[in-house]
Amino acid sequence: MELRDPIFGRSFVAEIEDPAAPGRPVVQGRIEQTRSPDDMMGRDARGYWLREDDWFFSWDLDLDEVRLVDLATDPMSETNLAEANPERVARYRQAVEAWIERYEG
């Protein structure tokens, strides 16, 4: 079987059964611990993340901090583009809030 790139966010079942099936447009989840170059031991955290195509959004609820990164141009996630993309940040926050309501109610 030949896998197409990229397969991130795709169900492997769909890939096996129907290679033409579309992948999930958005993948998201919860953050429970975070690390940084300054704090490699990390800390417990409450937050959420969302990935859409090459965009990666994270929302640290403890710090009320959002990060938005274009992984296509910044694969090391060094530049926070949140302030330059307020509409995208608002849309992602709404999606995360809907996810929280649906799965954590």
What is this entry, summarized?
The chain has 105 residues and is an alpha+beta fold. 23% of the residues lie in helices and 35% in strands.
What does this structure look like?
This protein is an alpha+beta fold. It has a single domain (26-103), classed as Arylsulfatase, C-terminal domain, CATH 3.30.1120. 23% of the residues lie in helices and 35% in strands. It has helices at residues 12-17, 86-103, and strands spanning 26-36, 39-52, 55-60, 65-70. A four-stranded antiparallel sheet has the order 1-2-3-4, covered by helices on one side. The chain is globular. The N and C termini lie far apart (40 Å). Residues 1-8 have low confidence and may be disordered.
What attributes characterize this protein structure?
globular, alpha+beta, 105 residues, Arylsulfatase, C-terminal domain, single chain, 4 strands
Measured on Cα atoms, how large is the radius of gyration?
16 Å
Overall form: globular
Terminal CA distance reads 40 Å
CATH topological fold name? Arylsulfatase, C-terminal domain
β-sheet strand percentage: 35-45%
What is the number of E strands?
4
Overall pLDDT metric:
81
Main CATH class: Alpha Beta
Q: Write down the domain tally.
A: 1
- Percent helix range: 10-25%
Order of helices and strands: HEEEEH
Task: Tell me which CATH architecture applies here.
Answer: 2-Layer Sandwich
Q: What structural class should be given to the helix and strand makeup? A: alpha+beta
* Count of separate DSSP helical elements: 2
Tell me the strand order in the biggest sheet. 1-2-3-4
Low-confidence stretches: 1-8
